[in-house]
From TrEMBL:
<protein>
    <submittedName>
        <fullName>Phytanoyl-CoA dioxygenase</fullName>
    </submittedName>
</protein>
<dbReference type="GO" id="GO:0016706">
    <property type="term" value="F:2-oxoglutarate-dependent dioxygenase activity"/>
</dbReference>
<dbReference type="Pfam" id="PF05721">
    <property type="entry name" value="PhyH"/>
</dbReference>
<keyword id="KW-0223">Dioxygenase</keyword>
<dbReference type="GO" id="GO:0005506">
    <property type="term" value="F:iron ion binding"/>
</dbReference>
<dbReference type="InterPro" id="IPR008775">
    <property type="entry name" value="Phytyl_CoA_dOase-like"/>
</dbReference>
<keyword id="KW-0560">Oxidoreductase</keyword>
Length: 269
């Protein structure tokens, strides 16, 4: 079997029963040695080709926030990356754990957090305020999740995420746009009663997965290079657009309460 065929056959492993249980109890899970190193290397190569070595040479994606500088990855159009996305979809279905409901692709993008010590062309060199993803996606039901894939080994100095454990059980907690100068912990001080993880330490191939209800945040990138990350977002296959203006996708030609269509949002689980 060729090296390429081997990568396409199994770019990532399967989640374990213990990892699924951790995800449901805590709202996030770290998956150690989840993705093959050669797949990570391919993703980093694509990211740098699209965004430059500095992670800052792409055009602005139009959302001026300090969390990261984003670039659509369009991985479904790349045979090798699509194999990873489909492997992620299989695991997203397992993590979702709904009877008869599979995972649907929602988006994939590169998200380098730029060094805080440098003046950057694009936004994305600040801290990530503690927030919840759910409200920005304009879907009508929960169950969505983000596979957060670092493309190099990183720790706290690079601005890796911390999760507020169990926060996914507190329901929808608003948009980060409504928090003013604070974050979710200021708007909902009861979050301070929940445990928060230290910034996650990632070795090559490690990833984290968090629900779109889980409160999370990160410090600044204090290194002198980008903190490269690749994100794949999944939704339940029965998710519908709720009619609100979304930040994450174009609703042209769609009607409120319409299920996400198979062409743009294929089932990957």
């Amino acid at each position: 079997m060729s090296d390429q065929a081997r990568v396409l056959e199994s770019p990532c492993r399967d989640v374990t029963a213990q990892e699924i249980a951790h995800y449901h109890e805590h709202g996030w899970v770290k998956l150690s040695k989840f993705i093959k190193p050669d797949v990570i290397a391919l993703l980093l190569q694509i990211a740098k080709r699209r965004m430059g070595e500095d992670g800052d040479s792409n055009d602005s994606y139009g959302l001026d926030q300090p969390y990261f500088n984003a670039e659509a990855a369009e991985g479904l159009g790349n045979q090798e990356v699509r194999a990873l996305i489909e492997g992620i979809g299989r695991n997203a279905t397992a993590l979702l754990a709904r009877k008869g409901i599979r995972a649907r692709y929602f988006s994939d993008f590169f998200a380098p957090k730029l060094p805080c010590s440098k003046q950057t062309r694009n936004a994305g060199n600040g801290a990530t305020a503690f927030h919840q993803d759910y409200i920005t996606f304009a879907v009508d039901r929960t169950g969505g999740m983000t596979f957060w894939i670092p493309l190099e080994p990183y720790g706290a100095q690079a601005g890796t995420m911390s999760f507020i454990t169990g926060s996914h059980k507190m329901g929808v907690m608003g948009s980060y746009h409504t928090y003013g100068d604070g974050d979710a912990r200021d708007a909902f001080p009861e979050l301070l009663d929940l445990p928060m993880t230290d910034p996650i330490e990632y070795e090559l191939g490690d990833i984290t997965v968090h629900t779109h209800l889980t409160i999370h945040g990160a410090g600044q990138n204090q290194t002198d290079k980008p903190r490269w990350a690749y994100l794949v977002l999944a939704q339940p296959e029965d998710a519908c657009w709720n009619g609100a203006p979304p930040e994450a996708f174009d609703t042209t030609g769609m009607t409120p309460n319409q299920r996400l269509d198979d062409e743009r949002f294929p089932i990957i689980g």
